[in-house]
Amino acid sequence: MFLSNYENKIDKKGRVSVPSTFRSHLNSLGYNGFISYPSFNHLALEACSQDRIEKLSNTIDTLNPFEEKRDFFATSVLSESENLQFDTEGRISISEKLLAHAKIKNVALFVGLGKTFQIWEPKNFEKFKLFARKKAFQNRSNLKWENKQKGELS
Question: How far is CA 112 from the centre of its chain?
Fold first, then answer.
């Protein structure tokens, strides 16, 4: 899983080191990099493994091929996605287009979200984190533990 958050500087050549725990998880899945695309909801980049983007693509493919929303999703996610490969030192180069979307200049914040992660400009994430914490507190009753063996909620 992708957990916690890590702040790393972007070097003069535009490279940033990916947290070792994130690299290890991706390597355990058989990947030497990840897919990234502009977030719909935030000034951030979404990041995931190849199989996750394939799952998203398959979901888009279930939509009617002649419906506009299929084209909207395919264009907004798949055509904007970039395959970012690790170099020998575990760094990636994020394109100017992706950096501009997230307003990232000198520092990238990698934020673990379980099966995916995001890349943020640190100050923008701090603002969002405060908002998210407030909303999570308000909606905390929606989270329920499921006992998978008995099918009971506890």
Answer: 8
The answer for 30, left when phi > 0, alpha when psi is -120 to 50, beta otherwise, is: left
Spatial separation of the C-alpha atoms in residues 28 and 32, rounded to whole Å: 9
Q: Which CATH number describes the domain made up of 5-140?
A: 3.40.1550.20
pTM of the predicted model, to two decimals? 0.89
**Domain boundaries defined on the chain:** 5-140
Q: Are 26 and 49 in contact (CB under 8 A)?
A: yes
Residue 97: band (very low, low, confident or very high) from pLDDT cuts 50, 70, 90: very high
Residue 42 contacts residue 118 (beta carbons within 8 Å): yes
* Residue 52 to residue 42: CA distance in whole angstroms: 19
Q: Per-residue pLDDT tens for 71-94? A: 999 999 999 999 999 999 999 999
